Amino acid sequence: MSNSKQAINPEKGYVALLGWSLNAVEAADTFDRRYVVVAPEWAEDYCKEHDIPYVAWNFERLNDRSMEIAETLKDMGVDVSIPLFEETVEWAGAINSVLMDKPRLFGQAMLLRDKALMKRRAQLGGIRVGIFEEAHDRDDVIRFLKRVNQTLLKLEGDPDDPIHLKAFDKAGCLGHRVIRTPDEVDTIPDEEFPVLMESHLDGWEFAVEAWIHNGKIAFLNISEYVTLGYSVFVPATPDLEKYREQIREQIELLIKTFDIEFGFVHPEYFVTSDGTMYFGEVAYRPPGFKVFELLERSYGFNAYQGLILAFDPKTTDEEIKAFFPKEVVDAKNYAGCFGVYPRRRVVSRLEIPTETEDHSYFESHELTPPLEETVTKRTAFGTHWGLVYFQGDDAYTMRDLLKQQEELDFYV
């Protein structure tokens, strides 16, 4: 895709991007819709310098001025706001309920932000979920761990099944920990409560990205995790793609249950060995791990422009059909990335392993030299130090290659 600007189509919607993402801005800038970026004050200089339409807003603070941003955007003639990050999903719901005069959009955004409410809503819609509960303190966690294992009819001496703890409203793996024994409960800091507790689901975990127009799926991608928190590639292996019809049915059920008319969802599921699908969670924003960028490498379409199409109320069915490729068959190759975590406690320099660099699938990396020598200990799932990108023709080579990266040192 070339980065040449398209002429603005005045018949089409005017969109507000909530949050700062350079790739989203570049996509909007070369697309045919008017756009404005709503981002914190630190983005202002960059926007001025590059002629990017911009409104300053602090998403950290929900306050009595919260209505102001919706009114500002309405006065500007904006049709819809698009959340780019987890922290802006609620804001988008609040703003869109004003812009579109649909008060229910705010309640919907709250459901898509609070993992406990989300699971309840999913359950009411007949979606399969594991056992879950909220915990307000460590005693709640110990009780839940015991009760889950009692339910599983564990005998004295059997190893306990682990439980998962997740922050209510953080993105992805942030604040996610696995608890196996009552002793581990003591390691949870006070400030992490309240948390959502879930039973462990044995199965193959994967993610979905679905663009939605008029309540229907416009494009559905299945992202295959090689190791959660480390690596992902698109499209998925034939082993996972064989569940596509079942997955599509699950997404249709999700759209119906959460009443989603437009936009984009990024849910995670587990499929068990007998083919049963369990719902993990759903986000109403682009995925982490640069999956949008991977899709562009694989299919050639700009996923952020797809996002703008899916949110814009003035998008037609014809535009959607013309924009999105055919799933799987139109993919030119497999594109994957690996998140690097230093494996040593003390590191002094960045050194890309030769077996990574010399592999024909290796494409590029965005790793930077270490700023300090001591690697901070990861609590739960930490943040990776950067991504390494791969592209190639074979799904299984890609999968094995991404797995192999876990054994290598990028920081020495």
UniProtKB/TrEMBL annotation:
Gene Ontology molecular function: ATP binding; metal ion binding
Domain (ATP-grasp) ranges: 119-312
Keywords, in A-Z order: ATP-binding, Nucleotide-binding
Entry keyword annotation includes Nucleotide-binding: yes
Protein name: ATP-grasp domain-containing protein
Source organism of the structure: Luminiphilus syltensis NOR5-1B
Source species taxonomy: Bacteria, Pseudomonadati, Pseudomonadota, Gammaproteobacteria, Cellvibrionales
